[in-house]
Amino acid sequence: MVILREHSDAPLRPNDPALYERLADEWWSPRGSFAMLHWLAAARAELVPPATRQGAVLVDLGCGGGLMAPHVRGKGYHHIGVDTSPSAIRQAADHGVLAVRGDVTALPLRDGCADVVAAGEILEHVEDLPRAVAEACRLLRPDGLLVLDTLADTALCRALAIGVAERVPKMAPRGVHDPELLVDRIELARECARHGVRLQVRGVRPSLRGVAAWLARRRETVPMVPISSTAVLFQGRGRRTAGGSPGATRAAAHPGHVGRAAAEG
Ligand SMILES: C[S@@+](CC[C@H](N)C(=O)[O-])C[C@H]1O[C@@H](n2cnc3c(N)ncnc32)[C@H](O)[C@@H]1O
């Protein structure tokens, strides 16, 4: 496969989409710039149950190179991916994803088309979080499932996920995150609730033993483990009820609800 590269070495602004063209040939390298995305894709897929009906659809927002594909294959979904990066969607397609070019804030898909919407490591890249959440929820069928992982808008997250991780080779590409776009957990839960999804969240981090084994090249991937704090990296999961309700919005906006480690069983 020929990948069209963005050849300039000019510095990029934080969260510049051109970064994904520069790093296009690293998507599927388990030790490349996107290594941690492989670990997160596996953890995200664990939140997705097997499909319960013929023709079930999983929509993968900001699908990148399609790293979730091997982990959801066999669960019975048509896997549709949406991404703005031309090189990423080509690679997602090569891995069995029906990949379309599009923006997660204006999705080219019809209302209620999805049994599952996955938003992995995408919400911290969008400028209009409410719009992206509204679009994700719009795609869900009644009782459809939203799964996500993203980075929290906290000083600790800025220090670890940007200050440290972007300086350690292969942890995260330099400049991939704009600190202004980290996700406010209260706002995220409130927006989900507005659209009928009561989000439950839990913090996750890479297993330290797993990282040690990965660094020593004894294994190619690292398990993510749940933790009580959602202050850095967290997963969310929630089903869409028939419609949002003011009560659900108020409950989700309460800090105690969002901070609790409680992934739906
Ligand atoms: C950090 S990567 C995550 C990729 C994938 N979800 C994963 O976890 O492997 C972010 C992806 O989102 C895409 N992206 C960023 N902004 C987007 C937008 N507004 N609409 C659609 N895709 C977007 C990028 O091109 C990139 O592929």
UniProtKB/TrEMBL annotation:
Region (Disordered) location: 238-265
CDD domains referenced in this protein's UniProt entry, alphabetically: AdoMet_MTases (cd02440)
Xref: InterPro entries: Methyltransf_11 (IPR013216), SAM-dependent_MTases_sf (IPR029063)
Pfam families with a match to the protein in the record: Methyltransf_11
Cross-referenced SUPFAM superfamilies: S-adenosyl-L-methionine-dependent methyltransferases (SSF53335)
GO molecular function, one term: polyprenyldihydroxybenzoate methyltransferase activity
Keywords: Methyltransferase, S-adenosyl-L-methionine, Transferase
GO terms, biological process: methylation
Domain Methyltransferase type: 59-148
Protein name: Methyltransferase domain-containing protein
Native source species: Streptomyces lonarensis
Origin organism lineage: Bacteria, Bacillati, Actinomycetota, Actinomycetes, Kitasatosporales
